[in-house]
Amino acid sequence: MAMKSLSFLAVLSLLALTLPLAIASDPSQLQDFCVSANTSANGVFVNGKFCKDPKLVTADDFYFSGLQNARPVTSPVGSTVTAVNVNNLLGLNTLGISLVRIDYAVKGQNPPHTHPRATEILVVEQGTLLVGFVTSNPDNRLFTKVLNEGDVFVFPEGLIHFQANIGKGPAVAFAALSSQNPGVITIANTVFGANPAINPTILAKAFQLDPRIVVDLQNKFKK
After folding, report:
1. 72: which of 78, 103, 136, 181 lies 20 to 30 Å off by Cα?
2. Binding residue per annotation — 115?
3. Which cysteines are joined by disulfide bonds (predicted)?
4. Is 85 annotated as a binding residue?
C-alpha cells in the first residue's frame, strides 16, 4: 500500500512539473493541420475554428502575400500593424504561430500594449527603433534597447511592451508571435476607451489625475 501511495505521489509531482510546459502556448495539434473553415458544412469544430475537410485543403490555405509592401500610416500614434493570423491565413489554425508587419512613420510608435496569449520576437528591417518591456508588479522593471536593421528583440508573453521610431526616416519591423491568434490589449485604448466607459473617479484615483483630465482622455479615445 505504501509503495502504491508513493507511486501516486510521484505521478502527481511529475504532472505538476510538466503541466506549466503544456499550457505555455497554444495546444499542440493532433493532426498534420487543421485549416480553418467558415462553416461546419465540411469541417469539425476544433480550438475555436471549424477544420476544413483535409481532402478539400489546397496550397492557398497556407499562403499569404503582400507583406513586402509598405502600408500607409494614418493612425494618431504613427504606426500601422498588418497581422497575419488565423483570421486571414486559415492554415495557421492550431499551429500556434502568427506574424505581423509594423510600419512606423517618423516619430511614430507602437504604443504600450500586451499580447495575452503570446511571446513576441521582433526584427527590424528598416530604420532605428527604441523598444522595451516592463516586468510585472511589484518590480515593474523596464528593459529597453535601441535596435537597428537586423537587430532582434524578444517581448515575453503578457508583459507590457512598446516600440518607438527614433530614426530620421520611416521604419519597418516584422514580428513572430507564439499563438495563431495572440490578441492585443493597447493600454491607453483599453483603459480610456472602454465601452461603456470606466467611471472617471476610479481612473482618477488609479492614475492620480484630476477627474476632468480623465474625462478629456476618455473623449479622445471614444469609439
Report:
1. 181
2. yes
3. 34-51
4. no
C-alpha cell at 200: 472617471
Can you read off the three cell numbers belonging to residue 71?
A: 502600408
Q: Which residue has the cell 508571435?
A: 177
One-letter amino acid for residue 198 of the chain: I
Kindly give the parts of the chain with pLDDT less than 70: 1-31, 38-48
Residue 167: strand, helix, or coil:
coil
pLDDT in tens, 154-166: 999 999 999 999 9
Q: How far is it, in rounded angstroms, from Cα 193 to Cα 68? A: 32
**Is 0.90 surpassed by the pTM of this model?**
no
Q: Per residue in 190-214, pLDDT tens?
A: 999 999 999 999 999 999 999 999 9
Under 8 Å CB-to-CB from 145, ≥6 apart: which residues?
130, 131, 132, 151, 153
CB atoms within 10 A of CB 211: 14
CA distance 103 to 79: 5
Distant-in-sequence contacts of 50-57, Cβ < 8 A, 24+ apart: 51/93, 51/94, 52/90, 57/33, 57/91
